Amino acid sequence: MRVFIIPLGRFDLDVGTLTPGDASGRRAKAPVYAYLVECAAGLVLMDTGCSTALARNPRSILGDEVDSLTPEMGEADHILAQLAGLGYGPSDVDLVVNSHLHFDHAGANNCFPNAEFWCQAAEWEAVAAHPQHYPDPGWDPGPKARRRGLRGDTDVAVGVRLISTPGHTPGHQSLLVEADDGPLLFTSDAVYTRAHFNAEHLGAAVDRTQARASVVRLMELAREGARPFFSHDPVQASIEAWRLAPAFYR
What integer pLDDT is reported at residue 204 of this predicted model? Predict the structure, then answer.
């Protein structure tokens, strides 16, 4: 097994975007990531990052929010360019697992013609019921026959497990990988940053009760030995010496 943490550019954002109620006006550089796992299930990609459309013309996707959430992404930051650097093309990906379907996690879903797509059923239902919350159409992978709606924790392969962590969105999920280098816990937007790894300091959530319970669950997994990696922490990768692609974990 090999596990890659793939950087996909970043956003220059108002910190109030990450922490509702913070009106300080401070700015931060929030990275975007995807995660690639080579395992018994084949080539598994968690999240696909932003679309080319968003990177080139963010106002067309984000509208006026672009002033508080400004992408800093070039062509080399697109998921296909990053995968090419690892020796893979889009048709090599067997399974795309979306933590959720927001524009910075699922914007390039439509770039993977051969993959199956696994989301929690609640997330597929949410994007159908509330499309205004999912403004980038790149989340749509095409034929519904390739979509699977999960209900709760799900094993992808031996040592690769999806953890249901609703709250940020109705069907949010995180990823736990039992790597030889130690268990790795990719929280996605259940926990934005190290500061949000606290049940009393939540990030944005559609259901704060669910979000709090999800953070508590992830904290318990960390206490049991899983090393957490947060979705948009500006400094975690550097100060904690995480290996980013093309480096990897086994």
Answer: 95
Q: How confident is the model at residue 145 (pLDDT cuts 50, 70, 90)?
A: confident
CA 176/CA 221 separation, integer angstroms: 9
Summary count for the chain: helices (H), strands (E): 7, 12
Token pair 């597929």 is found at 124
Confidence check: pLDDT of 25 > 90: no
Q: What is the DSSP string of 14-35?
A: EGGGTSTT--S--EEEEEEEEE
Q: What is the structure's pLDDT at 128?
A: 96
> Cα angle at 123 between 193 and 58, to 5 degrees?
60
Tell me whether residue 244 is in a domain.
Answer: no
Asked if residue 95 is part of any domain, the answer here is yes
10 Å CB burial of residue 24 (0-12, 13-18, 19+) is: exposed
* CATH code, domain carrying 231: 3.60.15.10
Q: What is the pTM of this model?
A: 0.96
Q: What angle do CA 28, 30, 31 make, to 5 degrees?
A: 150
Alpha carbon distance 166, 91 (integer Å): 30
DSSP per-residue string spanning 83-105: HHHTT--GGG--EEE-S--SHHH
Find the radius of gyration of the CA atoms of the chain.
Answer: 16
Q: Is 141 helix (H, G, I), strand (E, B) or coil?
A: coil
pLDDT tens for each residue of 81-124? 999 999 999 999 999 999 999 999 999 999 999 999 999 999 99
The parent domain of residue 47 ranges over 2-239
50 pLDDT exceeds 90?
yes
**Has residue 246 been placed in a domain?**
no
